[in-house]
Automatic annotation (TrEMBL):
Residues 1-247 form the NAD-dependent epimerase/dehydratase domain. This is UDP-glucose 4-epimerase. One of its GO terms (biological process) is galactose catabolic process via UDP-galactose, Leloir pathway. Keywords: Carbohydrate metabolism, Isomerase, NAD. It holds the Pfam family Epimerase. Its EC number is 5.1.3.2.
Amino acid sequence: MTGGCGFVGSHAVLALLDAGHEVVVLDDLSTGHREALPPGVEFHQVDLMDRDATAGVVARGAWDGVLHFAALSLVGESMVEPLRYFRRNYMTALNLIEACVARGVGRLVFSSTAALFGGPERSEPIPETALIQPGSPYGESKHMIERVLHWADAVHGLRSACLRYFNAAGADPGGRAGEDHRPETHLIPLTIDAALGRRPALKLFGTDYPTRDGSCIRDYIHVTDLADAHLRALDQIHDRSVVYNIGNGEGYSNLEVISAVERVSGRKVPWEAAGRRQGDPAKLVADSATLRRETGWTPRFAELDRIVETALLWREAHPDGYGR
């Protein structure tokens, strides 16, 4: 697994271990945390931009599959540094895919994104067949990788699952892992920290969108449910490649997230309106019917308050994240 020390990756590690798998993690620790890995997990600090180092680790084993999480992932930052996003996201994935083909790896699960669907004209909820029209270099870089995987299958037989997931949130219900981005950019932990008095008033980017309350609407999926979807997708790609959208199918607005944090924490959330953030669509909600039908996946932590509750428990128990 690449990026196994990151937010989603660390929870996927737990899901794989819980299912009885052995896991080897590659991570450059630029944004991930070594402390996020349970004891005993084999770890290699590798920058996937280093083609030889990447190939060297892949060549060490007879892998049942590879899960690729490592990437730059901030929409706003990609609008400022587009070439950096194209270079790192595309080249690191290409190095990994080449190494998998050379080693004869048969299956690869790719952490893609709902940011592929950035165009103004699309159905809601969004199916896999929706028009691909990324609204940011981040989304575009992920689409480029999906195309590489298409041809890696067509020419070399590398089966892949491209998982276009929406907004990962929450924390391991057992408290084994959580969200620790530096700087933090995700709405739920930012809102929790504002409620706990650990940061200034929350900035709400955009209050004039064409939504029910003027703020952006997103489909929040619990990170444990997301990890489960990766395992199920891995089982689907023995003889074919798949593409799945992953979300709860329910959208919650930014203002509704604030209300949920206030309900769960019992504290007021200080916030102030700010301008729209470039590259942000008004609404993104997933149609996950294909994933549910083909794998039997269903979210266990679908309610927004439950997602917030697990995130709050993690933030309260780890005020300094993995630094504690």
